[in-house]
Amino acid sequence: MATALSGAKPWLVATVVERRAETPTAATLVLDVDGWTGHHAGQHLDVKLTAEDGYSAQRSYSIASAPDGTPRIELTVQTVGDGEVSPYLTSALEPGDRVEVRGPIGRWFVWRPAAPTGPPSPPVLLVGGGSGIVPLRAMVRARTAAVPFRVLYSVREPAEVYYADEWAHPRPGVDVTLIHTRRAPVASRRPVGRIQPADLDAHGWPAEFEPDCYVCGPTSFVDAVADMLVDRGHAPGRIRTERFGPS
């Protein structure tokens, strides 16, 4: 499957197949994209909306689905209260509606399974904060059975967990730990609070395993986790980060 990774990309027409709620403020859009040439887990794309008067606005969103050789992709969008694009995507779009997309975009924050004839892939550590879990979910879905994954997902409260059913019933070889920062389930043994070095020690991979580490979320979250990983002996070159903030 050919995948364009660089250079100017055209705007493509995407038709909404399904819109489903993930949380009270986030929704996953299933799109069929005319002319889609494929993507790698971890990449994102631009979405453009154009009004009848010609005014347009565009935003970037991570792709939530693994590449499967079809023109169908998923985006999970968090509503921004005063946003121009996200409220329309999460609340107004219906099956059959169309939007324009451009992508895939991104080279660095990408996970690819090892080639069948090459050396095996190292274990993978995914650390996501809030909606930063979206590209990491694509990596989990793209995972091959031979590669063990550990996922640490930091979220404010249970109602804000994306893909809750997937994390409650993870695939074999995928260990998932939820870290609640403001309100935790009654049965939770961990006190609420931000991710700590002890969380990485208990639920991540030791540095001597040389895992590939992917960290995605708000800038302050990503910086803090990356520093913790380096402090625990992980090589900076094995830590890939993706930051996001308000548009």
TrEMBL record:
Record domain FAD-binding FR-type: where: 9-111
A GO MF label: 2 iron, 2 sulfur cluster binding
Keywords from the named record: 2Fe-2S, Iron, Iron-sulfur, Metal-binding
Alphabetized Pfam families for the sequence: FAD_binding_6, NAD_binding_1
Cofactor: FAD
PROSITE patterns assigned to the protein according to its UniProt record, in alphabetical order: FAD_FR
Name of the protein in its database record: Ferredoxin reductase
